[in-house]
Amino acid sequence: MGPGPSNVAQRVLDAGARPTIGHLDPAFMEFMDDLKGLLRWVFRTSNTLTMPVSGPGTAGMEACFANLLEPGDTAVICRNGVFGQRMVEMVERLGARAVVVDDEWGRAVDPRKVEDTLKQTPEASLLAFVQAETSTGAQSDGQALAELARRYDCLSLMDCVTSLGGTPVEIDAWGVDAAYSGTQKCLSAPPGLSPVTMSDAAAERIRQRRTPVQSWFMDFRLVMNYWGSEGRRSYHHTAPVNALYGLHEALLAMREEGLESVWDRHARLSADLRGRLESLGLEYLVPKEESLPQLNTVRIPAAVDDAAARLALLQNDGIEIGAGLGPLAGSVWRIGLMGESCRAQYVERCADALARVLELRVEATA
Ligand SMILES: *Cc1c(COP(=O)(O)O)cnc(C)c1O
Q1: What residues are paired with 49 via a beta bridge?
Q2: What is the pLDDT of residues 221-280, one digit of tens each?
C-alpha cells in the first residue's frame, strides 16, 4: 500500500508464467496487436503510435522527451514534486532548455502560472506536466493544461504513471499529444513496462526532426519498425515477452470490471480511508479537492518515529506504506490505494494497523 508496486492479481502472475515464445512468432504478432488495442482502450485514444516501452515509467518519460525534443529546443516544465524535477533534469541532459513553472509540493499545478509562462515563452515547443504527482499525492488538471498547450502552439506531454487506471485519463477528449505510464501503479501488473501513446501531431514532430534521437534504443522511428506496421514487423530489440503477457492480462481484468467502475472504486475507497485516517487524528498534506484517491499523503504526527512505525507496520501487519521523498522525507507517509491494492479489506486493515502503531507511541510517551 505504498506508491507502487501495487499488488498483482494471481491471474496476472499466472499469465506471466506462460511459455516464453519468440518475439517475432506469428502468435506473438497477433498478441501485440491485441495488447495495443487494450492500451488504446485504457488511454481512451485512437492514436496509431501506442505501445509499451521496454522499461519502467522513467524509461517512458525519457523516451518521450528524447523523441520530442532536439538540442536547443525549449520546453515549459511544471514542477510540483519529484517527478517534475526529474523531467527538468532529462530536458537539460538532452541539450534543450527547461523553463520551469514551480508550484508548492502538495499542491496542483496552477494553470494561470503556466499560461503566464507560455505567454512569455513563445519559443517553447513542448509543455510537460505530471497529472498525478506520486511524491505528494496532488492531482493536476490534465484537460486544462493540454488546452493551454494547444492555445500557445506547444505539444503537450502528460505523465500519467500513477493516474492511468486509477483516475480519469482522456487522451483524445483532452487533446493530449503524448503520454506515458507505468505498469506497477494502478494497472497492477509487474514493474518494467511503460505504455506510451502519441498523437499524429507528435508523431509528425518526430518525423520532422533535424537531428537523430540521441538514444538508439529509444528512437521511436526505429522502435515502431517492431511495434508499428502490423504484419511487417522486424527486430529492434528483444521484447520482454512474459512481462507483456502480464500487462495484457491486467488490462483484460480491468476491461471486465469497466474503466468507470475502476475509477469509482478508487474514489469510494479513498474517501473511506480518509474518514478513518482523519478520525485517528492524521492530517492530509494536499487540500481535499486536489487530492489523488490512489495516493493518500498524511503528515506524520510529531513524536512518531517514521522509520520505526513503517517497520512495525511491515513486520506486524505485512503492510508496506511509502515514506516521504525529497523535502518531504521524514514528514509524511504515502498510502497507496492502487489497482489491486485498492480493496475494502485493505483499507480497513491498514487503518487498524496504523491505529495500533499510533497507540504504541502514546503508550511509549505516557
Ligand atoms: C513511479 C513514477 C514514475 C517513474 O516510474 P518508474 O517505474 O519508477 O520508473 C514517473 N512518474 C510518476 C508520476 C510516478 O509515479
Answers
A1: 198
A2: 999 999 997 668 999 999 999 999 999 999 999 999 999 999 999 999 999 999 999 999
Domain boundary pick from 255, 273, 298: 255
For 134-138, 177-181, 226-230, 276-280, which range has the lowest pLDDT when averaged over its residues? 226-230
Å from CA of 281 to ligand 1 middle: 30
Q: Is 161 in the pocket of ligand 1 (CB under 6 A)?
A: yes
Indicate which residue's Cα is closest to atom 5 of ligand 1. 57
To the nearest 10°, the Cα dihedral for 73, 76, 77, 78? 180
Task: Identify the CATH number of the domain in which residue 65 sits.
Answer: 3.40.640.10
Task: Tell me how far apart the alpha carbons of residues 8 and 23 are, in angstroms, rounded to a whole number.
Answer: 24
Out of 204, 234, 255, a domain closes at 255
Question: What type of residue is 199?
Answer: S
Model confidence, pTM? 0.97
Quick: pLDDT tens for 289-344.
Answer: 999 999 999 999 998 999 999 999 999 999 999 999 999 999 999 999 999 999 99
User: Ligand 1 centre from 241 Cα, in Å?
Assistant: 22
Same domain, 96 and 222: yes
Instruction: Find out whether the beta carbon of 43 lies less than 6 Å from any atom of ligand 1.
Output: no
> Which residue out of 53, 109, 161 has the highest number of ligand 1 atoms within 8 Å of its CB and is therefore the one to mutate?
161
Using the Cα atoms of residue 174, residue 207, residue 48 and residue 219 in order, give the sign of their dihedral. Answer: negative
